[in-house]
């Protein structure tokens, strides 16, 4: 097997080349110990098996960022057989800076000139042969986005693998004697050229110094010596020579068209980054994303819901049937798990659209431009222009997921801003919160849904900014910060394949999370809600009610010609179940024809009993009326029993014990139970509320059940909304916070700080609403204004700024 | 010929061209700036200032890069 490492600078189109080589057959994992994605693909060419590993995009192999360290360690430890270096053909000069360092590794290298079409359009005439001759490696031309060059790349890999690397060297002039000395001195067991280690040692690279066993002090002394003897600053000198060499190679192998045309990117940026147009344009993009993903996506769920309901009906049909009010535990459990799973799957259309749109924005190259436009704003709050992507993924446009959001913070080089971003992303509206909002809005604010949704989706950014400023001024005050220097890449059209693939990969990641954690939690919750169960007293009371209802039915049935059939209790139970099941399926029947088909199917399966559901003669009609009454009665009894059960359950007890505190926010034990379960996974809040309110009608959505219930006012709903907006992250997010922040301390902080904030805010605004008899919408607006004011005021609080010139104790001071 | 005009990168005017002079920088910023092509002797073009007046966008080594004024002010440029 040939091990190929795919290396290149950010924005060189590395992922399109990787996708071109691998197709959909990609394996995504993490590099050991860190959360940098490691994509691997296995393919074969000319009878050889090839393993391709996609390294993170890096400008260099310094230790500036996590990505650079990960890429460097992989190359040192894994000894790839061939390094495939992707170069943006329209940006050769800067790309060569990395190429030189790859060539110095002394492993076989194949260079891929990607985006040849863009280079041609820019009037660049690239002589690949000349480049290949000067660098002494194979150079392949390709257009990853259009699948051009795959074969050439693969055969070049095979050729490169069967030849020895051809030792390309840059002459580092005055430093050469020192490089030679270190080349002798360092002995590291590796396939990598000793010269590379020597150069890295001179750069005082931590990883290499550690491997070579050279103490840092020795290097510092060396650094000073070179500085005083040759007046050379090693870093500056190496960089200058690399860029000079790149410039030389560029002019030897590339002819620029005599008159330089203005690139499309430059033209576009004149509008997109224009002082006056940048904000309207950004607002337009955000609005479009919101409309397409959330609004349109939500409408789509109306079309997909019936299919999920069908699945649910099917699952219920294979579970043991209830015997009037005696529902088998297995059936309860099955319905519970199905509800938990479906509540989430219902939102998959929104996910697909959202992730696709984000992938498109990423691919086009707009993300760093958002950072460019907004950095000054974020900087005021101790964040970074690069915080934009994590916050957007976390749900800046309402509906994201904190998990990918927090994972995306790894690109932020500024440690303080990174940690602040990790801790604020959970305040954004994660998609799992959306069903909860939708549920409450649907139940209490049907007419004002748009207004409320606007408040909810925009207030989060003020909260996030306020929290970021507060924690960067306090807990994170002394964290290290880093420079803001970012490429604004040329615009590229995204490829359909790339976008669809990424969208599905992300959705799949989410579903996997649902499959494991949320369902596991659902099991635990089921147990906590089910036991110890309702008291015997209540149960016997309910049984008496049930018996009374059955006796009443029996008396009516006696007077009809069908008593023979209905004498048997079993048949009565069956009839009630049949009636419920028929109603459920009739609800989701899409057309009159489908409804008719349903009738036929039911009649065929149960020729006798169905007569009472779709009655013809007078006796059947009489019984039909009774059946409906019986179904209603059983439902009422079951609901009573269920809420009795939840109230006396372990979780109910815990929820009740919290009432003394949460009463100030208007939360009763039921709401507490819902929130408690939401800490496990936010999705569970809806599932729990849905289940608490589950009216047994298998087709009814929880919105209807809650608003019909009449226990809460819109003000209660606003208090719940405020708490939910601020509520702590779900288990999965907590785990990711722990991973990315590297400490349990921050994880605990990430749990309790929002919880405290949530209870306080919900209580304050619930009481303000009560005091001034505000409507729900008015209270929400008050909360909104408060958060807006707090963000504005905090934005004017000056933080500690770094003086770059004198801020660091350095190796060469 | 007029006198050589030297100013910090952060104070360049839009569309002004310059050449980076030797400048003193330490730590992470040094690594980052060199990696991104801000090496002495390179030509640099001021492209635009962000709508909120910070950061700035410059063209260097034939590509576009954005840098905060705080960081740009330590880079000395000779206007050409």
Class of secondary structure makeup of chain B: alpha+beta
> In which range does the helix fraction of chain A lie?
55-70%
**Which stretches of chain B are low in confidence, meaning pLDDT under 50 for 5 or more residues running?**
none
- Could you name the ranges of chain A where pLDDT drops below 50 across 5 or more consecutive residues? 695-700, 804-813
Give the count of helical stretches of chain B: 2
Q: End-to-end span of chain B in angstroms?
A: 11 Å
Instruction: Spell the H/E element sequence of chain B.
Output: EEHEEEHE
Q: Strands across the major sheet of chain B, in which order? A: 1-6-2-3-4-5
Outline type of chain A:
elongated
Portion of residues in helices of chain B? 10-25%
Question: In terms of topology, how is this protein built?
Answer:
The complex is a heterodimer of chains A (813) and B (80).
Chain A: E1 2-8, H1 14-22, E2 27-30, E3 37-45, E4 48-54, H2 66-78, E5 82-88, H3 92-103, E6 109-114, H4 116-121, E7 124-126, H5 128-135, E8 138-141, H6 150-162, H7 176-185, H8 194-202, H9 206-212, H10 216-230, H11 234-253, E9 254-256, H12 264-272, H13 278-318, H14 329-345, H15 348-364, H16 367-380, H17 388-396, H18 402-407, H19 415-424, H20 433-444, H21 449-473, E10 485-487, H22 496-530, H23 536-558, H24 563-566, H25 569-587, H26 592-605, H27 610-613, H28 618-648, H29 650-657, H30 659-662, H31 669-680, H32 683-693, H33 702-709, H34 714-726, H35 731-741, H36 744-771, H37 776-795
Parallel strand pairs in A: 1-4, 1-5, 5-6, 6-8
Antiparallel strand pairs in A: 2-3, 3-4, 7-9
Helix pairs in contact in A: 3-11, 5-11, 7-8, 13-14, 13-15, 14-22, 14-32, 15-22, 19-21, 20-33, 20-34, 21-37, 23-28, 25-28, 29-31, 31-32, 32-33, 34-36, 34-37, 35-36, 36-37
Chain B: E1 5-8, E2 17-20, H1 27-35, E3 43-49, E4 56-60, E5 63-67, H2 69-72, E6 76-79
Antiparallel strand pairs in B: 1-6, 2-3, 2-6, 3-4, 4-5
């Amino acid at each position: 097997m040939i091990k190929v490492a795919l290396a290149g600078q950010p924005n060189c189109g590395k992922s399109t080349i990787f996708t071109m080589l691998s197709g959909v057959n990609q394996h995504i994992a993490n590099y050991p110990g860190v959360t940098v994605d490691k994509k691997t693909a296995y393919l074969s060419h000319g009878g050889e098996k090839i393993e391709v590993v996609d390294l993170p995009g890096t400008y260099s192999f310094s230790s500036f960022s996590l990505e650079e360290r990960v890429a460097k360690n992989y190359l040192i430890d894994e000894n790839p057989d061939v390094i495939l270096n992707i170069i943006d053909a329209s940006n050769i000069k800067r790309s060569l800076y990395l190429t030189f360092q790859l060539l110095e590794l002394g492993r076989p290298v194949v260079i891929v000139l990607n985006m040849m079409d863009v280079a041609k359009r820019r009037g660049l005439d690239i002589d690949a042969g000349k480049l290949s001759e000067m660098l002494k490696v194979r150079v392949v031309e390709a257009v990853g986005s259009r699948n051009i060059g795959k074969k050439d790349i693969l055969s070049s890999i095979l050729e490169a693998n069967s030849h020895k690397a051809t030792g390309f060297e840059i002459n580092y002039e005055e430093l050469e004697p020192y490089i030679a000395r270190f080349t002798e001195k360092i002995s590291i067991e590796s396939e990598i050229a000793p010269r590379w280690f020597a150069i890295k040692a001179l750069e005082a690279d931590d990883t290499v110094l550690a491997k070579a066993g050279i103490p840092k002090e020795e290097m510092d002394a060396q650094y000073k010596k070179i500085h005083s003897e040759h007046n050379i600053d090693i870093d500056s000198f190496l960089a200058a020579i690399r860029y000079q060499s790149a410039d030389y190679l560029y002019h030897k192998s590339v002819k620029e068209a005599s008159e330089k045309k203005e690139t499309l990117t430059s033209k576009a940026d004149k509008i997109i980054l224009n002082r006056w147009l940048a904000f309207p344009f950004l607002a337009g993009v955000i609005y479009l994303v919101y409309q397409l993903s959330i609004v349109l996506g939500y409408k789509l769920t109306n079309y997909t819901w019936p299919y999920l309901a069908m699945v649910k009906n099917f699952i219920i049909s294979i579970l043991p049937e209830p015997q009037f009010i005696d529902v088998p535990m297995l059936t309860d459990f099955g319905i519970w798990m199905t509800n938990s799973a479906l509540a989430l799957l219902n939102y998959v259309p929104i996910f697909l659209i959202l992730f696709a749109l984000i992938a498109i924005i990423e691919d086009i190259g707009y993300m760093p431009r958002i950072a460019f436009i907004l950095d000054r704003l974020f900087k005021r709050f101790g964040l970074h222009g690069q915080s934009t992507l994590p916050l957007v993924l976390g749900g800046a446009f309402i509906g994201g997921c904190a998990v990918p959001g927090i994972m995306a913070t790894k690109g932020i080089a500024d440690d303080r801003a990174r940690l602040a971003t990790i801790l604020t992303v959970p305040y954004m509206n994660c998609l799992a919160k959306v069903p909860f909002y939708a549920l409450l809005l649907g139940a209490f604010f049907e007419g004002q849904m748009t207004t409320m949704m606007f408040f909810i989706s925009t207030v989060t950014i003020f909260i996030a900014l306020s929290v970021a400023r507060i924690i960067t001024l306090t807990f994170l005050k002394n964290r290290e910060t880093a420079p803001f220097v970012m490429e604004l890449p040329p615009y590229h059209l995204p490829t359909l394949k790339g976008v669809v693939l990424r969208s599905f990969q992300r959705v799949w990641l989410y579903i996997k999370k649902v499959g494991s954690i949320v369902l596991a939690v659902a099991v635990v919750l089921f147990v906590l809600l089910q036991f110890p169960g309702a008291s015997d007293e209540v149960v016997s009371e309910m049984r008496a009610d049930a018996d009374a209802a059955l006796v009443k039915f029996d008396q009516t049935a006696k007077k009809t010609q069908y008593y023979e059939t209905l004498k048997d209790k079993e048949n009565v139970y069956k009839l009630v179940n049949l009636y419920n099941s028929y109603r459920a399926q009739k609800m989701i029947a899409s057309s009159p024809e489908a409804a008719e088909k349903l009738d036929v199917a039911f009649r065929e399966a149960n020729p006798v009993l169905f007569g009472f559901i779709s009655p013809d003669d007078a006796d059947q009609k009489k019984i039909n009326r009774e059946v409906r009454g019986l179904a209603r009665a059983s439902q009422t009894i079951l609901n009573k029993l269920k809420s009795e059960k939840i109230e006396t359950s372990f979780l109910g007890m815990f929820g009740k014990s919290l009432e003394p505190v949460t009463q100030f926010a208007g939360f009763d034990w039921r709401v507490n139970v819902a929130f408690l379960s939401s800490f496990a996974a936010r999705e569970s809040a809806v599932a729990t509320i849905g289940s608490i309110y589950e009216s047994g009608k298998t087709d009814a959505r929880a919105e209807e059940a809650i608003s019909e219930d009449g226990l809460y006012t819109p003000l209660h709903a606003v208090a719940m909304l405020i708490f939910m907006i601020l509520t702590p992250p779900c288990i999965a997010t907590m785990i990711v916070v722990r991973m990315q922040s590297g400490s349990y301390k921050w994880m605990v902080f990430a749990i309790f700080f929002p919880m405290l904030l949530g209870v306080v805010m919900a209580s304050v605004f619930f009481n303000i609403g009560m005091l001034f008899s505000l409507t729900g919408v008015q209270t929400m607006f008050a909360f909104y204004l408060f958060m807006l004011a707090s963000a504005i005021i905090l934005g004017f609080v000056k933080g500690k700024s770094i003086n770059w010139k004198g801020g660091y104790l350095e190796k060469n001071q | 010929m007029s006198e050589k005009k030297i100013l910090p990168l952060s104070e360049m005017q839009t569309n002004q061209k310059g050449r980076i002079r030797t400048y003193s920088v330490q730590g992470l910023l040094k690594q980052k700036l060199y990696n991104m092509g801000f090496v002495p002797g390179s030509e640099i073009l001021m492209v635009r200032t962000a709508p909120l007046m910070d950061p700035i966008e410059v063209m260097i080594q034939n590509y576009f890069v954005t840098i905060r004024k705080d960081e740009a002010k330590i880079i000395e440029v000779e206007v050409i």
